[in-house]
Write a structure and sequence with these properties.
Elements: E1 2-7, H1 15-29, H2 33-50, E2 53-61, E3 68-73, H3 85-92, E4 96-101, H4 108-114, E5 121-125, H5 136-145, E6 149-153, E7 162-167, E8 171-173, E9 177-198, E10 201-221, E11 226-234, E12 244-252, E13 256-260, H6 266-274, E14 276-280, E15 292-296, H7 307-312, E16 316-320, E17 342-343, E18 354-360, H8 364-367, E19 369-370, E20 373-374, H9 375-387, E21 396-402, E22 406-414, H10 415-427, H11 439-452, E23 458-464, H12 472-485, E24 488-495, H13 505-512, E25 515-520, E26 547-548, E27 550-551, E28 567-568, E29 575-576, E30 581-585, E31 591-598, E32 601-606, H14 625-635, E33 644-646, E34 650-651, E35 656-661, E36 674-678, E37 681-686, E38 692-696, E39 699-704, H15 718-724, E40 729-730, H16 732-746, E41 749-756, H17 758-785
Parallel strand pairs: 3-4, 3-5, 5-6, 6-40, 8-12, 13-14, 13-15, 15-16, 16-32, 18-21, 18-23, 23-24, 24-25, 34-39
Antiparallel strand pairs: 1-2, 2-41, 7-9, 9-10, 9-11, 11-12, 17-29, 19-20, 21-22, 26-28, 27-30, 30-31, 31-32, 33-35, 35-37, 36-37, 38-39
Length: 789
């Protein structure tokens, strides 16, 4: 079934009126009207052919007798399971073949792609953990796009096994608490003893229990610089190889921090304990040797302009408020404000929640038709109907659209006052850009719009066909933005039929915790929102306890492990800039801690004071971690910028990337290729063949057991990944009974294909041209034959 005629280059059709106009002129002046008429028709047909007309045909495909490939995972981690499942299934399925792979790594994604073909079926008999090659998620998406159905057998381990791993930063500061986490993974209910050592000295011993995964947070302070080794061990079990783990931690001296302050304060007390602190009353001429600069309640002076290149080149800046800072310190429109994530002007609370509609106007929305309309018109109707919901009557609504690029259609306005304007702008939307669908561009504008709003709550509603199958970077960036915004996000997928093959909104929702809602034309939109909480209303009369602080984004380095339980008595009233991130706010949404990146540097604005008057509770034990975490984030890596090694701990048998910053080309020994990637920057890939501690100079790298032994048991995420790609997870008995039917059903695909009509037009034009030439030639012959002397 075709859905109409489209053109690849419709702008060429403007030449037809010109051709016809010239034809009329020659018809009026010329004698051979047949010649003029035929030439005009031929040229018009050629122009239409050059515009490349095509129709989109829609039809379904089904594989009546699917061929089944059983992927039999016999890698080392499968020792916990029944290894005879694949062979038994192979014997039960007539039209099947078995493909076995072994070793101490599981390239599950690569193995799937080796058996992808149109209408085929792949059955995984595996624990579902892929630790080498192409990511499993990408392989499943490619298999589905190639009309290959992937199913899996859900397996129960026969043996109990547990593994241990230490996670944490690779660097620490001497004398400071270094936080790390011991992660215990198990194939069932595990109970045992966990022992942790720092340079062979015990730092923790205790009982640990796990049913899948559990973690224990520990901290330790190292008393000297250089490489130190953490080691964790659990009780021995069926596989003792993964019962010990080592982590190399490179300890550096306390970083140099400059505090610009009038005198002692609770902020000064914290910084002097944690860093090599210099204090001054004004900014000195040279600050290049400091990892971070802290301005404490400072009035702007022209000498602060040197902070702009300092931050741009990688320095950290933290600006702490007070009565002489921000709006009281002449920051507004100053050179200093250029690097800050805020503007020194009040943000106004306007009540209610801000909702941002993110609408897809890419050309894919016009090429797919839903009944008698295309998806773009269906999308616009759903958006307008959504705004009629009584749940939105007190909200502010903004509209963002995206295709190849994204732009703001309407900044947030109260719906009660601006609904007609918003409806008109949505109705007038037309497709933009090319066929690209860059959702991340739209989400980034939505994030900036929410950050500009002073309300404490926000919501994003995305309406699109969800066609992200050809944009893996867009998908990953969109997922990152949704998690970063940390607001209710609704992914509304409009579709002409159920489960379109290229749509990935369900998968995106599962990965980010967003709310997924599919709508198939002509289904009506019935999405409802949660009622506005009373705590979101402006607090006109604050209690004597002050303004409580709220963590708005818990996914940031500064706030990920912080639970605030403190209030402030005063604040600087500022407005976040687009692209900044509010981390800590007051209940009405006014920012207290706002961050962003400027050039290579990091900048944080703390819009309350140093604990002297407004915020003593923020600098007390329990809450002061927010302050130290903010400074640590601004510092970044505390090591020097030159003559340093950067590398994660590794796994035996897994390639390990090493980055070296050095004025001279490093030499890592025979057989190690080194590539220069920038000024004084080199990269190399190591292939560790044994466990242990490897040293590059004084920098240690811990190599542990093969990655194959880390994840034990059956992958709990496998069922979600398989179902997101259109497959299903069976038990062995269920597979025998219904796999063939499910494979046949899953092979049904609705396919849209373009069929060009260019050749037909060119053949028609050629036929008319030749016909006219032949007719004219015959006419000339007849004339010569009738005029004999």
């Amino acid at each position: 079934m075709s859905d109409g005629v489209y053109f690849s280059s419709p702008e060429l059709l403007w030449a037809i009126p010109v051709i016809l106009a010239l034809g009329l002129v020659f018809l009026w002046k010329g004698k051979d009207k047949v010649l003029v008429l035929s030439r005009a028709i031929v040229l018009s047909l050629v122009v239409v052919a050059l515009a490349n007309p095509y129709v989109v045909a829609t039809y379904t495909r089904e594989t009546t007798s699917p061929s089944i490939t059983i992927l039999d995972d016999q890698t080392d981690s499968m020792a916990l399971f029944d290894t005879g499942v694949a062979q038994r299934l192979h014997e039960r399925f007539v039209n099947s073949q078995i493909s076995t792979f072994k070793g101490n790594s599981t390239p599950l994604g690569d193995r799937i792609l080796q058996h992808v073909s149109q209408g085929s079926t792949v059955l995984l008999v595996s624990d579902g953990y892929s630790n080498a090659g192409r990511p499993l998620e990408d392989a499943l998406a490619l298999a589905r796009a190639s009309n290959t159905s992937v199913f899996a057998i859900g397996m129960e381990p026969r043996e109990l096994d547990a593994s241990i791993e230490i996670t944490g930063a690779n660097t620490a500061v001497m004398g400071e608490d270094y936080p790390f986490t011991a992660v215990v993974r198990s194939s069932g209910t595990y109970q045992g003893t966990l022992s942790v050592f720092a340079d062979d000295e015990p730092v923790y011993t205790g009982d640990v229990s796990s049913n899948g995964s559990s973690s224990i947070k520990i901290s330790h302070a190292f008393g000297s610089t250089g490489t130190h080794i953490l080691r964790a061990a659990i009780s021995s079990d069926v596989q003792s190889r993964n019962n010990q783990y080592q982590k190399a931690v490179y300890v550096v001296p306390k970083p140099e921090v400059l505090l610009i302050s009038a005198g002692p304060s609770p902020l000064f007390d914290i910084l002097s304990r944690l860093y090599k602190l210099d204090q001054a009353s004004e900014l000195p001429g040279s600050i290049s040797g400091y990892k971070a600069v802290v301005l404490d309640n400072q009035i702007y002076t022209s000498g602060m302009d040197s902070l702009v290149p300092y931050v741009r080149d990688g320095g950290g800046l933290v600006v702490v408020g007070g009565p002489d800072a921000y709006e009281g310190g002449s920051y507004l429109n100053s050179t200093l404000e250029e690097v800050l994530p805020i503007r020194s002007m009040p943000s106004t609370f306007e009540g209610g929640k801000t909702v941002v509609l993110v609408l897809d106007i890419s050309f894919s929305m016009t090429e797919t038709r839903a009944g008698n309309t295309n998806l773009l018109n269906y999308e616009k109707s759903l958006a307008i109907e959504l705004l009629k919901s009584p749940d939105f009557k007190d909200y502010k609504v903004g509209v963002v659209v995206f295709g190849t690029n994204a732009y703001v259609v309407s900044t947030p306005v109260t719906l009660a006052m601006g609904q007609r304007m918003i409806d008109d702008r949505i109705t007038s939307l037309a497709p933009s850009g090319t066929e690209n669908t860059y959702l991340d561009n739209g989400l980034q504008l939505a994030r900036d719009m929410l950050n500009m709003s002073s309300s404490g709550k926000g919501e994003v509603v995305v309406i699109s066909d969800g066609d992200l199958s050809n944009y893996p970077l867009t998908f990953s960036r969109s997922a990152e933005l949704i998690r970063e915004m940390n607001v209710t996000t609704r992914l509304v997928q409009v579709q002409a039929f159920s489960n379109p093959p290229r749509a990935r909104f369900r998968e995106l929702a599962e990965e980010t915790g967003a709310i997924f809602t599919p709508f198939t034309y002509p289904q009506s939109l019935t999405t409802r929102t949660q009622p506005l909480q009373e705590t979101n209303k402006p607090q006109e009369n604050q209690s004597l306890e002050g303004y409580p602080l709220v963590v708005l984004s818990a996914n940031h380095y500064i706030t990920e492990d912080i639970s605030l339980n403190s209030s402030i008595n005063g604040f600087n009233d500022v407005t976040p800039k687009p692209g900044s991130q509010r981390l800590v706010i007051m209940p009405d949404g006014k920012p207290v801690l706002t961050t962003w990146r400027y050039g290579l540097g990091r900048v944080a604005s703390l819009t309350t004071d140093d604990g002297t008057t407004w915020a003593p509770a923020l600098y007390a034990r329990g809450s002061s971690q927010l302050v130290s975490a903010t400074i640590n984030w601004a510092i970044g890596d505390p090591r020097p910028e030159t003559n340093r090694v950067d590398a994660e701990d590794g796994w035996m048998g897994t390639p390990l990337k090493v980055t070296i910053t050095s004025e001279a080309r490093p030499n890592l020994g025979p057989g190690v290729a080194i590539e220069k990637t920038g000024t004084d920057r080199y990269e190399a890939t190591l292939n560790p063949g044994a466990e242990g501690i490897y040293y590059l100079g004084d920098y240690g790298i811990a190599i542990n057991y093969p990655l194959e032994y880390r994840d034990v048991g059956f992958n709990p995420d496998l069922a979600r990944l398989i179902m997101a790609s259109g497959g299903k997870v069976f038990t062995e008995d269920e597979a025998v009974l219904s796999l063939i039917d499910e494979a046949r059903r899953a092979s049904i695909r609705t396919v849209q294909e373009r069929t060009s009509r260019r050749d037909t037009l060119l053949i028609t034009a050629l036929a008319i041209f030749l016909g006219e030439v032949v007719a004219r030639r015959l006419r000339e012959i007849r004339k010569r034959g009738g005029s004999k002397p």
